[in-house]
Amino acid sequence: MNKSVLYITRRFGFYLIAAFAALTLNFIIPRLMPGDPASIIFARFKGKLKPEAIDAMRESFGLTNDPIFIQYFSYLKSILKGDLGTSIAYFPAPVSEIIGNGLGWTIFLAGISMIIAFLIGTTLGIIIAWNRTGKLDTILPPTLAFFGAFPYFWLAMVFLYLFGFSLNWFPIGRAYGNEINPGYNLPFFISALYHAFLPALTLVFVSLGGWMLSMRNTMISTLGSDYITFAHAKGIPSKLIMLRYAARNAILPNLTGFGMALGFMLSGALLTEMIFSYPGQGFLLLQAVQAQDYPLMQGIFMTITLAVLGANWLVDIAILFFDPRTRK
Amino acid sequence: MINNKNIYKKSILTRWVSGIIVNQKAFIGSCIILFFGVLAIFVPPFIQSPTDFLSTPLSPPSSDYFFGTNGQGQDVFAQTICGARQTLFIGFSAGILVVIIGALIGGTAGYYGGRIDDVLSLLINIFLVMPGLPLMVILASWLPPSPATLLGVLVLTGWAWNARVIRSQMMTFRNRDFVSAAVISGESNIRIIVIEIMPRMLSLLASSFIGASIYAIGAQVGLEFLGLGDVSTVTWGTNLYWASNDLALLTESWWTFVPTGFCIAMISFALTLINFGIDEVSNPRLISERLWRNKIPKNKITHGITPVSNSNE
Questions:
Q1: Residues of A in contact with B293 (CB under 8 A)
Q2: For residues B169 and B204, is the Cβ–Cβ distance under 8 A?
Q3: Is 0.85 exceeded by the ipTM?
Q4: Using the beta-carbon criterion (under 8 Å), do B244 and A238 form an inter-chain contact?
Q5: Minimum distance, in Å, between the CA of residue B70 and any CA atom of chain A
Q6: What is the pLDDT of residues B71-97, one digit of tens each?
Q7: Cross-chain Cβ contact A223/B303 below 8 Å
């Protein structure tokens, strides 16, 4: 028991360091650029923005004449207070407020599609590894590898074109219907699911192959172990061997991979949101890029990084539950 | 396996080439890459310039313009072919750089171990866990748009995965007898790493390079699609950027983005095939599995037949 607590605390310490590194990177990047960030901002926004907006931007970055250490500490202080500066694109709204509005949608879309892809992919991997000489094993891996080769956002464009614009089966933007009142009511949930269906489908489609292949490969090597042969010899029903004996062990690398893939999947979700005009972080990021809204961009980077780190920690706890070796 | 006996007498290069030709997947993949390579390098001077205004914007494919024209009245066919140049060049260069940096950092961490490994592993893990796209977006938007910026951003966000894989491979080599023998006989560490160990990691390095290139091409196209590349150049990413900027979906002009996307997918699929091929050639478990498959009649096996047990994984 104590070992588990130690393990979880150690992992938490690592994520704390990683979060700190991301914060520092976020602070350093503008200051490492050729020329100083203040003059870059002035050059890019001269004539485009009101002077008070430029001042707000300088303030967001803590670009004062103080020595860099003092700037750094005041930056850390404001981040800890949840102050991410002022947005340029949505001036004068604070960045934290804008991000807060879109965060739920991203977690909803990315979370749902990741879990679905993981479940379906892992199940398919178990099945095709078990029936390794069957037709499925010769057809599925190359097909899914082929679809996995398309860029996320391009497949999203094609899906949107086919099912949204040409066939009119699905909505072409937004997260819920225009006329619907957001809140805890049934029409809203149905509308939200209906709007999320197509973006989620693209995400599941592209990422399915990876889960399936890695599950298949570990499953095959697990099936070759002696304890599986022994289980067969004892006459244990094959279904039990497949699920309780082999799959239970083979799923561990996939679970670790789940944490690793989070960041990658989230990046895909961001791009997909942009295509579907889905009002999450990706859509915000696109607007931030187009308006060169640096505070918003960096706020999104911080938020997403923290979300990924937190989710990774949860995955670590899940692994503790599934893998007794980590408890020893 | 029996006729592979004298394969080890040949040089590494011929062994690789013959391995790729024999393996069906790797062969098909290499042919596709070669095809696109030739297309990108030699064909552009002979076709329509991709930046000329030719005909009514967004005219559908016809006998004059195979892939139609885009929102600027430019030939999509020419853009697709010329776009391959920079995209593939940056993609493969980033792939090489990522492997070099991954081998340096991961190799050092795995070989020396101890304190050095602790620090480098921490660095690797931090970069691994950080989400790539937002970081790339920030870097690319602060830096001036240019191919060098793209390359730098791709390498900075992509090296960690390879470093991790190479590190763990290096750690298993570090404990092998031939390395201990080399250490005792007084060889320098650098020599052991470069001369003794690296050649044995060739297949890992090759597949790392291919994986990194797939990543670099995809991420590059994504960044350019967001408008973070130099939008005045013709690349696959900017093709898609202009397609979406000229409202390809609203105007239902699918020909402006379908050819480019298809080419990107063909490239990554071909690279994936080569990686499967390398795995099949160099992974003993898969070799023996294939041999067994040939001996046992199809559809007769219901459970594990892999004859090599693996105790380490």
A1: 133
A2: yes
A3: no
A4: no
A5: 16
A6: 777 888 888 888 898 899 999 999 999
A7: yes
